[in-house]
Write a structure and sequence with these properties.
Elements lengths: L2 E10 L3 H12 L4 E5 L6 H5 L5 E2 L8 E2 H11 L6 E4 L3 E7 L9 E6 L3 E10 L27 E2 L12 E3 L4 E2 L7 H19 L14 H7 L2
Parallel strand pairs: 1-2, 1-8, 2-5, 8-10, 9-11
Antiparallel strand pairs: 3-4, 6-7, 7-8
């Protein structure tokens, strides 16, 4: 049965970087839908090495892939993201610009006949270690680097050459790229700033710290 969802951001990929993108966007009051072909969150961490120790996550001397996933899911719980597990994004359609959204938006279509209308698209699908197909693109002109199926981005916003489409984590490429989870977290934080500007050009973006902002702490329910 065809279902149509409307949201601020659609994230393709529910690995650690995709999950953390929900957190960063949520701090800016942006709602998210997340699509992943696996039946659960975690991406490579959950599928390939759930029990393997990871030693380079800040504040965690050692943490397993599954525990990292569980902690990230706990962290984003206040934002009530909607997950579409067991689905692959098979088509991306550019939508016409509308009032208040100068670059238009996107419709993501999955192989389960779900349609997700979003203002920005965030591709966090990893680098293909799980064999996930890249989404087909209609009317978007998304550039994949042909040699490795990676997406070039700028390093200020982690936006592709198509406004409103971002790529973070192992799927992207730029000079000096390090394929580390912590690098993807950094990319997600900068991506969220520009995503907000695209979605809400009429609003002022005010940078805040979770340690001192009562409004952010209210969102986090702490």
């Amino acid at each position: 049965m065809t279902a149509v969802h409307t949201t601020d951001a659609c994230i393709i990929g529910a690995g650690p970087v995709g999950i953390f993108a929900v957190f960063q966007l949520g701090l800016l009051d942006m709602k998210c839908h997340v699509v992943d072909r696996l039946d659960r969150p975690g991406g490579q961490c959950a599928e390939l090495y759930p029990d393997k120790p990871i030693y380079d996550i800040p504040t965690w001397p050692v943490i397993s892939g599954q525990e990292l996933t569980d902690r990230l899911i706990e962290q984003i719980s206040p934002f009530k993201a909607q997950f579409h597990f067991g689905q692959t994004a098979i088509r991306l359609e550019a939508r016409k610009p509308c009032e208040g959204l100068p670059v238009g938006g996107w419709r993501v279509v999955t192989d389960a006949d779900q349609r997700i209308d979003c203002k920005v698209l965030v591709i966090a699908a990893g680098g293909g270690s799980l064999g996930a197909p890249k989404p087909a693109v209609e009317g978007a002109g998304l550039p994949y680097a042909t040699d490795k199926n990676l997406i070039p981005v700028d390093t200020e916003k982690f936006q592709t050459s198509t406004p409103g489409i971002f790529a973070i984590g192992d799927i992207n490429t730029y000079s000096g790229k390090l394929k580390l989870i912590v690098s993807g977290f950094h990319e997600a934080a900068l991506m969220a700033q520009e995503a907000f500007r695209i979605c809400y050009p009429q609003k002022k973006l005010r940078f805040q710290y979770t340690t001192s902002s009562s409004s952010l702490q209210k969102k986090l329910r702490v």
